[in-house]
Records
---
Amino acid sequence: MSTNFINISNSDDVKPFLLGISSNLLPEATKRVDANGLQVARSTILATLMHNLTLAYPERKSAGIISAFYGFLMAKNLDWVNSQTIDQIILAALLQDVGLGKVAEKIPGVPYVQLCKDHQAAFQSHPKEGLVLLQDIENVSERVRQIIYQHHEYCNGTGFPNGIIGTRIYPPAKILSLASGFVDELLNNPKERPANILKKFVSDREIVTRYDGDCVRSLIKLFMVEKK
Amino acid sequence: MGKTTLLIIDDETVLLKNVAEMLTGVADNIVTCDNPFKAVEILKKGNVHCVICDIFMPGMNGVEVIKKAREMKNEVPFIFYTAHGHKDLMLEVAKYGAFDFIDKPNMDGLEHAVVQGLKVGVLQNSKVPGDDTNIRDYRKLLASLGDDSED
């Protein structure tokens, strides 16, 4: 993965995963994701954290960038999200897995389901590690830290690290939770069209009940062709 | 939206007054409280639709206030003022469902957060769509994707 944090949206690592999105918001998404990516690249601490993550998990950087796009696009469809919150979701998406860089040495490089309990616990600590690593860093607000801390919480209470239910999850974190979960499905099936993955994703009751209803509707709408 | 009540809790009385002034007109009633123990009593009575609470207060911190509210089955949205250096409190407070976080001292985004918090607070006792309703709705939307999503 050669994805850099400058002109990230032009990367071939990103474009195929946005295929089929009918939204005319892609140029704005590109601008906003690039601007936040630049903010990460210009910060020595944030760039170092991302470097550490990429060494351990090269694919997570692209996952963060693609999640940032989906986070932006979904948020634009939700009337309660303002411009400031959108940028916070994008930044959180880019930085969501920095905690993984810290716990990497405790986890063998196998799929999550094959991990033993101790290794799963180490993996599940990465949102908390992310919050701790980003403490006291200039330009990273508490909102961004909390989105990262809660990006694996699920509305049905089966997420981690705290297993809180939908009404208690920080609302912007619900957007990143879905964006991140959907992007993982895209990356696991790189040859399939995103719209086809979406159909399977949304049709799987066990998966879709993890996520906020309005966020899921917003995600589906991204793939609806605008009728003239 | 019906009549809304906002409760602001902060031991710093000057800040309490300033924030209340800043938010005049955003809620129908604004109640200020410089004592977290008294704030818990106010929350017991109910009819508060959104709370702004300082995270660090002597005697009882913001986490303990929201914890007490949740123990009373009160799910009112809480917006916390935060400042650097309260990492453990921030890890803890998420468990109880913080609605938003505002960084001190600039209070950026506070008004928008309160408006959204009041909306959620007023609606909190209304019925939310269940999984089955949502899934039916998703199916309808997916059907409208049809084959347009293919090449």
---
Amino acid sequence: MKKTNWLLLVLALVLSMFLAACSGGSDDTSNSTDDAETEDTSSEDDAAAGDSEQVLNITDSAEIPTMDASLATDAVAFQWLGSTTDGLYRLGENAQPEPGIAKDHEVSEDGLTWTFNLREDAVWSNGDPVTANDFVFAWQRAVNPDTGSEYGPYMMGGIIKNAQAIVDGEVPVEELGVKAEDDHTLVVELEKPVPYFESLTTFGTFLPMNQAFVEEHGDQYALEADTLLSNGPFVLTEWNHGEGWTLEKNEDYWDAENVKLEKINVKVVKETSTAVNLYDTGEIDRAGLSAEFVDQYRTSDDFVIDEEPTLFYLKMNQENEVLANVNARKAIQMVIDRQAMVDVILNNGSIPSAGHIPQNFTKHPETEEDFRELNGDLIETNVEKAQELWAKAKEELGQDEIELGYLGGDTEVALNMDAYIKDQLEQLEGLTVKVQSVPFKERLARDEAMDYDIQNSGWGPDYIDPNTFLNMFVTDGGNNKTGYSSEEYDGLIEKANTELAQKPVERFETFLEAEKMLIQEDAVLAPLYQRAKARLWKPYVKGVIAQPMGPDFTYKYAYIEGK
Amino acid sequence: MTRYIIQRLIYMVITMFLIATLTFFLMKFLPGTPLSAADKLSEEQQAVVLEKYGLNDPVPVQYFNYMTNLVQGDLGISFQFDNREVTTIIMERIGPSMQLGVQAMFIGTIIGILLGLTSAIYHNGMLDYSSTFLAVLGQSIPSFVFAGLLQFFIGVKLGWLPVALWEGWEYSILPTISLAIFPIAIAARFMRTEMLEVMGSDYIVTARAKGVNKFGVVFKHGFRNALIPLITVLGPLAVGLMTGTLVIENIFAVPGIGEQFVKAINMNDFPIIMGTTLLIAFLFIFIILVIDLLYGVIDPRIRLAEGE
Amino acid sequence: MDNQKPSKDLFVPVETKETEIDKISRPSLSFWQDSFIRLRKNIGAMIGLAVLVVLALLAAFGPYMTEYGQYEQDLSRAKMPPKVEGLGWLGMDGMLSDVQSADTVEQAKTKAMMRFNNQEEYITTEVLNDGSNGEAAEVKATYDVYAAKNMDENFWFGTDGLGRDQWTRTWMGTRVSLYIAFLAAAIDMLIGVAYGGISAYYGGRVDNYMQRFIEILVGIPNLVLIILMILILEPGIMSITIALAISGWISMARIVRGQILKLKNQEFVLASRTLGAKDSRILQKHLIPNTLGLIIINTMFSIPSAIFFEAFLSFIGLGLPTPMASLGTLIDAGFDSLQIYPHILLFPAIIISLIMIAFNVLADGLRDAFDPKMRE
């Protein structure tokens, strides 16, 4: 017995040796990758003598959830879909659509029929030509209830003819208002004139798909690098899900001559400090900065602030008795010192917002004045006035002590900011704020169920038009969820999207009026700030365009110089 | 012995079955569906999505389907990564975590045992105090603070090792060291305590009196006896390390399972939560079985099984 | 070996009177008295105990020693460095400094000034490297934050990102962490020891079922449990308490079981049993005291695990709701500014380490004191 026992022990030891040997084994393989790396650096040295090596090394904060354009819902997915696939148009400089697969288009007089002329030299990475049918297939797939797409119905419903009816299962998918007249002519019929449709076609959900390829791979489509097709500037060549992915230049791209970057290496890095450390050691060419790091790197030559048209604000649930009172809402709007908040807590170039349209987003069609400048600050910070309004509200409500729930995010910045806002709100006499910090998805779920009193929420545009921000708050709007319902406001938005659809100036002015009503008169939201992002960019990276919507960046024209 | 092992294996299956059942119904209590933005979908579409995940059936049917698939090794598809199989996702992520865990346990146990032995042999001497101090320190500093410091000083300032990422064996050194601190501390402390106790017992005193030298006694008699509590603690700890630690994985950007698990929890991705739970549970139960068997090997006086 | 035989003269019988045979030369001490005497002699353990008492007192009274509340914010005084009169030499002088490098001294100086918002009257610069030797020029700027912000009061531990007094928050956080520490220890002692002891002592079927139950508990990750708790209750101290209560004792139960399995077949137990001792007596008088060393050590390990578990929960957003402070949340919040405002992390980290070290040293002392074999 004793002997066998010892044998067992020896066996256990051998097993652990084996495990050690296993890690030793990976040691060997890593040595080979090591060699490859040294080769890389040597070629890099060679390249430095002449031209810089055209490789961009960056990080992303999450892995790609899906590369299926119909199923994509988040920024990471849209970023890499946008880099590998060209839609009808793509976002170029200053967020202006530039030709992608479409060379140009004509719009019928009533604004309902759009005819796109597609280029003939565009091919998929398997050699198939990109045809009008690829768009028809992709768009039908996006609205087909069987696909289970979330963005398809949202982006196309009410815009492309019959889209909503198909989503509701009332008519067959084939009835969607998009037809391939021939291989290179795409005709789209709309439900109503949509002035921003060109901008809309750059969005990920409108990207084409190669029908034969998608059907061949079925369930497995877009799950791995080899079940994906590209027709854009880059091809996804390697995809190690949790770790990172590699894009290489697509030599068959119709505009390949304008693509200088040979390779983009993306690594998944979640911690800001890790990314900054990687940046400092030269492993990556870009790092996002949190408030603390901004203090440290503000004086650096690499420091860049990218403004975004993304707004953050407090949503107030009008089903709550207190928040149904307009004076109470106005008091909340006025009591928060937003300047100090962006300066100290965010510290990344974000600016206080005082409306529900970001600055530098849309301009008056004639005078070219910025929307934000025209409407000015719709709210001010004024604690005394807030107290007065709050006292009035309490009187109207007949309550003295009020407790409100506050739903916020669970990131470090969100926790800090919510603690601050709680403190600011509690300046209102007799108000107690209870903060609940939940993950993003949980917050969306509670928003959907209107299970909150006050909520710290944000919104980025889906297309370049005031409508993307303002139509949220029409009665029963999918993203309203505040209980706000005003016939007058509904009327303004409706008017802007129907009878004024082809009168840009009046339409713009209607939106100005609507925003005033939303923020100033009805105090539906308490605006907080317009987000900016502070980043470090290696000075040798040139030509990357930051985008206000869809993909965060356009890498098509990026190049490395002087590394 | 064989009968005992077979008996335990049967219990193992039953336990796994109970855990699977329990987690399944716990998940049913949690709110949340695969729909990330349900407001954007019509009723019809929601139904289609729910159908895809088999969530339209009554709960008992779902349970039956889940268990049947589970037996065939199919854990379903993830909510957050469309159409990707949970089994594939877990397999992709478990590798780095396992490697880090095994390396950290290996280093941690060896260094820890050595520190503990040193302490015990030179009881109340300088070496004892310094190694105890090291162990206490290792256990007192939060691992992420330690990891952050290692990364900054060794990675950035000195440039000796890669700062983060996962591209080869040398990338695993810093995370391994950060992870190993805790097992080192635990092993050292337990080893010291047990060795001191064992060294005081009669048979050791006898052996010493008979002229066996200090080190001989330590290795021949003391060591083996001190192993019992050590493996009891280190076993489950090893499972904990191998199934990933979110903090270390995040700081060193390691594509491991710990980070995936927490994200799944944040995203209400129930198939991944369940899959990972079952994997962790399996490893725990397996390790506990191994430990129970080792008890008998290490100390023949221990009798576990009934009637033996 | 040629041992010399000792001469018989060395052995002289002690003269004892008949009446003194039964006399006990030392006072009779109970187990606890004896242990306590030995504990008192252990200097390390007494220091550990003293540190814990001081920390507990500071946790109790520290927050009242300044005029700032733990939630009192003021963004104009955010991230103030610590300042204590007379402790300037320790770096607690209320100054921030930063080294900037550039091609020339002038550029470096401009950068250094810019780093502190160009408030020249409060900045002193010092040239570390004038760049003449081909290296980059380096200028160190020191910025008197308290003077610049015209602050009269001192923040002993500085302030955090929202201008809250770190001294107050650190001690409030210590309260939470100490509570969790004692809770964890109590759970371990009560549930863990009893469960492990019973399971191993009775063995057989009882052991089998009790261990399978543990396996089920262990199999369900803590995180899943805590999420359930949060759904039923609200995130906060209560849900952490319950999650710890459900799963915190398992490792202790397994260790006690392992040890008792080892002990229960040994001769002294057998002897006691043969003499007719009851189960409860054998457990209490023989098995538990012989396991005590391990129990204490393991308790000391579950304390840091529990404190770190709370910190981990804060890290993933399931811990204490903001703006409540625990040492875990404070360390977590300070982690991001580790490189630039280290004081936000430093003080909570030092205190958490002090708590751990004190518990450990005390535990060592207790182990030695309770060990029946070490009895003199």
